[in-house]
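The following block was generated as part of the benchmark described in Methods. Ligand: heme C.
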Amino acid sequence: MAVTSMGLIIACLTFAGLPVHAANPDVWDSLVPEHALAPARAEKNPLSSTPETIERGKAIFLGKGFCAACHGRDGKGLTGIPPGRFENEPRIFTNPTWQQSRTDGELMWVLRNGSAGTAMAPFIPLVLTEDEAWQVIAYIRQFAIP
Ligand code: HEC
């Protein structure tokens, strides 16, 4: 219940149009700061991408993680919002260039630390365990498959 409320609060604050500042204007630049980049890139997903792992990740993405509220059920980001509403749009996960430009470890860093100054909050440990975060990352990788 607490988790659900937090997701709702995040979503409401965002949709209420509170200022969302651009921490990083270029979608292709890693969101991980320079000093943390090498270890983040090297960190491997400890879970293998089995149908069970992906299924669990999907349930989190659509459910308690609230990821779909911003990234879209189809991973294509928000639709129907006026252009310029967000300086940093929720990432579009279906873009193959984006998929290739990130390691799982970099995505994990964002789930642990958030992206400062944007609507992307840190989700670990308040909403997700480390294990659940790796599951949802395995699911995000499915958006790379056309
Ligand atoms: C309230 C809106 C919101 C919610 C909810 C949300 N995100 Fe995000 N997410 C964003 C925004 C905005 C960015 C882009 C941040 C930036 O540009 O600095 C982002 C970025 C990311 C990134 C980093 C992408 C990159 O380029 O490295 C990952 C990974 C991510 N989100 C995963 C998730 C997952 C998994 C969930 C659910 C557990 C989730 N997000 C929930 C808004 C959201």
